[in-house]
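Example 3.
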Amino acid sequence: MSSGAPDAGRAGGREAGRDPVRVRVCPDGPLLLRGADEVMDADGRAHPVTRPVVAVCVCGGTARAPWCDGTHALLNKRRAANNS
Amino acid sequence: MHLPRPRGPISEAVVEVVRGGRAEIPSVTDIRSEDAQIALWTVYELAYRGFGDASPDAERDLELLRWRHHAEDLLEAELRDLTRAAVDEARAAAATVEGRLRALVDAGPSTPLARHLQRRATREQVLAYLVERSVYHLKESDPQAFVLGRVDGPAKVALGELLYDEYGGGRPERLHSHLYAEALEACGLDATYGAYIDQVEAPTLLSNNVMSLFAMQRRLRGASLGHLAAFEATSTDPCRRIAVGIERVGLPDAAAAYFHEHVEADAVHEQVVMGDICGAAVAAEPAIEDDLLLGAATCLIIDAEASQALYDAITAPAPELAGAGR
Ligand code: FES
Ligand SMILES: [Fe+2]
Ligand SMILES: [Fe+2]
């Protein structure tokens, strides 16, 4: 996360004058991010956020890292089938 | 856009009245017939982009409203019957609205269409798919936008957020219907709104009409949200496959781009609609939960029917002879 005002009142992830980044954990799914500017992938490459909400893959199965591409649903289904 | 080609006595009368003439519109005996479906589609279209050759006041014509009321009652009854078993099962499977929607989606019917497009379809078959889906994708999200003014609080905020993304997130060049138009153009197809309405089949018209049925009446706002939930939750997998198919048959990148965008966007939209819109809408108005499930089950069943019909049509061994009744 970055803004035009370096070090301006950084506290607990908040910067002065802007909303906090909000993260929601989706059950068996991705992380939903609101208010972020960029997401760093596992290789250290920054991906700019270009939509109002983004879904970040946490299952490791996506082909569009760091974004979720829905693959987690297939993995969940496979896992459920193997467990029964 | 011009008024569509009538496909029987009902749509003939509807087109005549929309044009400003006088006719008594016949009652519907088969709501799934292409005659009834194109007639209903025409009446609904008056509330979207409309027709260059329609009378300016057709949207409020009492004969059209009377007929629409009658046709909608038949359609709604048909959908409630069609979805009852699936909705009952989903209700028994989970306790929360999100859990019930997931249960519906997981148990929903599947068709070979997306896999076929991915692996085996010819270029012509892929183009036929793009044409058939143009009826919806050139007005993508417009039905659901009607619902925004009918919900409030967190559900409205999340629906607004989803729609903002569908509508390009502040960038006209990212408007999803525009991306679809670019896909059509890149393939040498006609990207004009409504260009292919005269050739699409009844199941495609029905899949469009159920969205308008749910969108046009405030009473059915829950069904509209539920439809959106099922639509978004069943989008990423087919979009991924279709993008592969488009690239496999060598169609331009712009055509695949629409589907790549929808893998990413709908992975987000699915979570937003399931977790942020539907839950909040039902928390605010518990009475709409039944209609939410009705809408979701309708989307799953009716869209699978349309996919299956399209698959059957494009893979039929011998093309039907032109002039066989149409
Ligand atoms: S969390 Fe959705 S693909 Fe990994
Ligand atoms: Fe879209
Ligand atoms: Fe979407």
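Chain B has a mean pLDDT of 96. Chain B is about 65% helix and 0% strand.
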